[in-house]
Specification:
Chain B: It is a multi-pass membrane protein. The structure holds two protein chains of two kinds. Chain A is an all-alpha fold. Chain A contains 13 helices and no strands. Helices cover 70% and strands 0% of the residues of chain B. The chains are: A mainly alpha, B mainly alpha.
Chain lengths: 278, 321
């Protein structure tokens, strides 16, 4: 119960929330607007807030001067395969942590949580060396493996929270009916938890899609580059071409934004449940 | 966070908990149970051990070796040499100061704005779900790309921020934002505040919604005003979540060079280098040993910080009872 609010309070509240919405969305608006301006209008000052004419030339240039199509394909391959594997693996680990009591449980959880807090950059050099030894350096499959390891801890913790929301009775009933444990997990629990699993998949996909430092370290040839690696190349070049850059940014942002919008409710639930439960 | 409620123990898969066969069956059951746990955890555990813990361990040991990209085969032990080099490096102290400014300057406004938003969002309104999804969107973007977006907006010649400032009459001539030693850090922090407010808003909103209505009803019966209810009911109830959120966020921002990389890459003249972005630059120069030593220093500082922070917030909580 929250006591009723005065009219002035209401006005303040809606103005504040509206203002924050504008501030939040403005950078997105700006990069989209920049991307669809003709090249000459991008470098105009005072700035044009609504373009006088629209043009796709930045996108055309982007695909002409760089292999952006290849980078997109690489990113999709790596992110989809990594996110799929991570979600499957952490379904198993999250399930065990949610449903069983065992001595090492605290230690296992701690081992996962710690990876979320320490600067992973210390591992970059040795990881490169390890991948050289395994023959996986500059390979999309090698990067995929590293991404799987990167995403497992958080994905496990998130899915564990979703498992805890499903009553035990469900899979017990299935197991009494002669289902194996793994059968009960995939035939009974997974269908019930679909929204949570989709959210975990999306979260993992976005983490991989956005990852920069590992891909910059492990990928060397242009043919294997993912989108963030390529963007990093654009930005370190002497003269940044903001036309192609904004086009590339828009193409990078849109897929993840659409996915997040669909799953935001469950992602929020997954993120907050752990912390609030304490 | 890692402990489970004792009540869960009773909820273990109880199906054949007391099999009629007695002890031997029971042992077989226990063994099967251990096997299940092991088999289900193995893929996750192996992946994390091989690709996270192993390189991290090697990296940590590398802090005590002479280890550069120019001579990977030969890595003689060198004791504390790498640490001495770092402590003798004047740029290091600059990055430490920058890191403090970066963390404090980001987290305080993020917390305050995030808290205010959460309070405003607590009451249901039409399209609240849509609103939450919209303000959530920065999270779909990488920190690096956020940096790039703000690099463009803060551009000194064609940037929209200078344009807005000029139009509103706040400045008379365009500011050189990212090229200026004095303005670069504030610009980077503004971008980071923009990025991080949502996280606080969402965590605090979830915490606010966990406060039981009865508490508010009781307080209202006692005739407590809004301000008193806030300080005496709401804040104490969500204190643990607040403390934990701030701790996690502090560590996270400390370890967050992505945005800086996209926006300034540490420039101008190292003025926006934080310790972790500096560490990456050293790594990219091939000075692995030195980078590892810096990494160990960071971990040590963060661990000490976390322990003190947890002790401090715990004491407060107990004093409150």
């Amino acid at each position: 119960m929250i006591t009723s609010q005065s009219l002035s309070g209401k006005v303040v509240r809606f103005v504040a929330l509206g203002l924050w919405l504008v501030i939040t969305l403005f950078p997105l608006y700006w990069i989209v607007i920049t991307a669809v301006k003709p090249r000459s209008d991008i470098y105009a000052f005072p700035v044009e807030y609504w373009p006088q004419s629209f043009s796709l030339e930045n996108f055309i240039t982007l695909f002409r001067v760089s292999n952006f199509g290849t980078y997109l394909t690489n990113s999709i391959i790596v992110s989809v395969s990594a996110a799929t594997c991570v979600t499957l693996i952490s379904l198993l680990s999250g399930y065990v942590i949610a449903r069983f009591e065992f001595k090492a449980k605290g230690a296992v959880l701690m081992a996962f949580l710690v990876t979320q807090m320490i600067p992973g950059f210390i591992a970059l050099g040795p990881l490169y060396q390890l991948m050289v030894n395994l023959g996986l350096v500059n390979e999309r499959s090698g990067l995929t493996l590293v991404y799987i390891a990167m995403c497992i801890p958080f994905s496990t913790i998130m899915l564990r929270g979703f498992f805890e929301n499903v009553p035990d009775a469900l899979e017990e009933a299935a197991m009494i009916d002669g289902c194996s444990r793994i059968g009960a997990l995939f035939r009974v629990l997974v269908p019930v938890m679909t929204p949570g699993i989709v959210a975990a998949f999306i979260f993992n996909f976005v983490s991989c899609w956005n990852e920069l430092f590992l891909s910059v370290t492990l990928l060397t040839s242009d043919a294997n580059k993912t989108v963030p690696t390529a963007l990093n190349g654009f930005i370190t070049s002497y003269n940044i071409d903001w036309g192609s850059m904004s086009a590339a940014a828009v193409l990078t942002i849109i897929p993840t934004m659409v996915m997040f919008a669909f799953a935001s409710k469950y992602i929020v639930q997954g993120l907050t449940s752990g912390a609030v439960k304490g | 966070m890692t402990t489970t409620a004792p009540g869960r123990r009773a909820a273990e898969p109880a199906a054949p908990a007391d099999p009629p066969g007695g002890r031997s069956n029971r042992r077989a059951f226990t063994r099967r149970r251990a096997l299940t746990i092991g088999a289900f955890l193995a893929p996750a555990f192996i992946a994390v051990a091989v690709f996270t813990y192993y390189p991290m361990l090697v990296g940590s040991l590398g802090a005590f070796r002479t280890w550069t990209i120019y001579n990977v085969a030969d890595q003689p032990w060198s004791g504390l040499d790498n640490f001495r080099t770092i402590l003798a490096d004047p740029l290091f102290y600059g990055t430490v100061m920058n890191t403090i400014v970066w963390v404090v300057g980001s987290i305080v406004p993020q917390f305050v704005i995030g808290f205010a938003l959460a309070l405003w969002m607590r009451r249901k309104f039409r399209f609240r779900g849509l609103y939450q999804a919209l303000v959530f969107f920065p999270w779909a973007i990488s920190g690096f790309l956020i940096g790039v977006l703000f690099r463009w907006m803060f551009n000194s010649e064609f940037g929209v921020i200078n344009d807005l400032l000029l139009r509103s009459g706040l400045v008379e001539s365009p500011l050189p934002w990212l090229a200026s030693p004095a303005l670069a850090m504030p610009a980077v922090i503004i971008a980071n505040i923009w990025y991080g407010v949502t996280f606080f808003a969402i965590m605090i909103l979830a915490a606010l919604q966990s406060v039981p209505d009865e508490l508010y009803e009781a307080a209202a019966l006692d005739g407590a005003g809004k301000v008193r209810v806030f300080w005496n009911v709401t804040v104490p109830y969500i204190r643990t979540t607040l403390a934990l959120t701030v701790l996690l966020r502090t560590i996270w921002i400390f370890n967050f060079p992505d945005l800086i990389f996209g926006m300034t890459a540490g420039g101008p003249g190292g003025r926006t280098h934080i310790v972790t972005s500096y560490m990456i630059e050293i790594t990219q120069q091939g000075e692995y040993g030195r980078a590892s030593a810096l990494g160990l220093i960071v971990m040590l500082v963060l661990a000490i910080f976390a322990v003190f922070y947890l002790l401090a917030t715990r004491e407060k909580k107990e004093a409150y009872r």
